[in-house]
Amino acid sequence: MYIDLINIYNKLSEIYIIPDGWWPGENKFEIMIGALLTQNTNWNNVEKSLKNIKSQNLLSPEKLYYLNIEKLEELIKPSGFYKVKAKYLKNLLEWFKIYNFSFELLSKKNVKILRKELLSVKGIGNETADSILLYSLNKLSFVIDAYTIRMFSRFGIEIKKNYIVYKNFFEKNLPEDLIIYKNFHGLIVEHSKNICKKKPLCDMCVFRLKCKKFHNNKNNIDFM
User: Fold this and answer.
1) Roughly how many angstroms between the first and final C-alpha of the chain, as a whole number?
2) Does residue 208 carry a pLDDT above 50?
3) How confident is the model over 152-190, as pLDDT tens digits?
4) Is there a shared CATH topology between the 2-20+143-223 domain and the 28-136 domain?
5) Fewer CB within 10 Å, N or C, the chain?
């Protein structure tokens, strides 16, 4: 089986209009904390939390680092699991403080080293770490989520449904291009929300003729 990821990327780019970079955020720090707050919730709730933080003029790593945790919990309450997320956010800020809250210092670090460090922070898993690396720090680290695994397993990709296995597959088969990495993940999210849902709208999908979900009796699927 051969799946041409760039062909899929190009087709999705024709369907969905997204801004280059996809992830919303006024600055790198907003993107960083948004990547954590979005755990187990939808983006609308994250935006409410970010709005609360901005309304108090607290959108800076230094201010949030020194903010008492009870106040932080109150601000991020719309994101859900706010007590846990407040602790996780404090953990992330503790790590960031090692770099003097400097994105310039982070930019000089190797992506593999940064990823290892982020994963050592309690509350930061694979998806959150890669989201921070890719969208906040502009490092080549492809983001995998449940949408990606659902969509591509339906295509018939014959690899283990495992985060790292999928990540390696995408990074091996995509050019090392930040915009492609960022936008492709965003396009997958858009397609999964609109068409390739839990109950997929296969008849409306541009990939239906090649999709294993649509043609369960097909064994050889080839995205040429």
Assistant:
1) 11
2) yes
3) 999 888 788 899 999 999 999 999 999 999 999 999 999
4) no
5) C
Q: How far from chain centre, in Å, is Cα 187?
A: 11
CA quadruple 66, 69, 75, 78: dihedral, nearest 10: 140
**pLDDT for residue 1:** 56
Threshold 0.90, pTM exceeds = yes
pLDDT at 29: 99
CB atoms within 10 A of CB 63: 12
**CATH number 1.10.3720.10 given to 28-136:** no
Q: Which fold has domain 2-20+143-223?
A: Endonuclease Iii, domain 2 (1.10.1670)
Which position has the token pair 């919730």?
A: 41
- pLDDT given at position 220: 44
Query: What is the spatial distance between Cα 123 and Cα 125, in angstroms, rounded to a whole number?
Result: 6
Buried b (16+ CB within 10 A) or exposed e, 112-146: eebbebbeebebbebbbbbbbbbbbbbbebbbbbe
